[in-house]
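Entry 14. Structure prediction run on the chain below.
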Amino acid sequence: MDWTHMLDPVAASIVIGGTLGATALRSGWADCRAAGAALAALLRPRFRAELVRGGLAPLVAQAGRDGLLRATPRPCGDAAIDAAVAALVQTRSLAAFTARDDAAREARVACAIRAVRTLALGAELSPVFGLAGTLISLSQLPADGLARAAFMGAISMAVLTTLYGVLLGNLVLAPLARAVERRVEAEEAARREVMDWLLAQLAPTCPPTRSVAQPRAWLREA
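Output returned:
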């Protein structure tokens, strides 16, 4: 098989450009930025619960020994957890701790939902532009006769645009949407494990106000 026959820059530009353009127009730039940020996050190291817990261990030990008022928060490697811990140390309030954590989690999950929705929309649109490319290529057939070269070129482009649309949707965009979803679900579960442990360690140093909400499958419920 000659794989060079599978390459057609014009067909690829029709499918890819049309899919990206239509997705941007239907989703909006904010959702497209969320999708880009989520895809970039896939290339970064995963959230490591054991490393973050290790970074929080000195604070837990100091709070247990000297009290929460004298504890000095240190960066644990996660900005959202650092912000929640700082709110707890400053106010000695479990309500402030959980409120800051809930707000950060809701923002992360909302951004992930927008990213998954955008990628899923692109996966739905790509076969449509594969078909559009097919129609465009067939429209280029000469009206005054079917020269063999022109006929073969139009048919080749028609087939390739359809193929590119199917591959882009089912082998690129849909798997990326699911990868973002899995990554967020796993990281939120790991974050919740760390926050539950931290709350259990620090709760005796300040008056409890309310219990921490149980983990939820946020993406599944959205």
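Residues 40 and 194 are 24 Å apart (CA to CA).
Filed with the rest of this week's runs.
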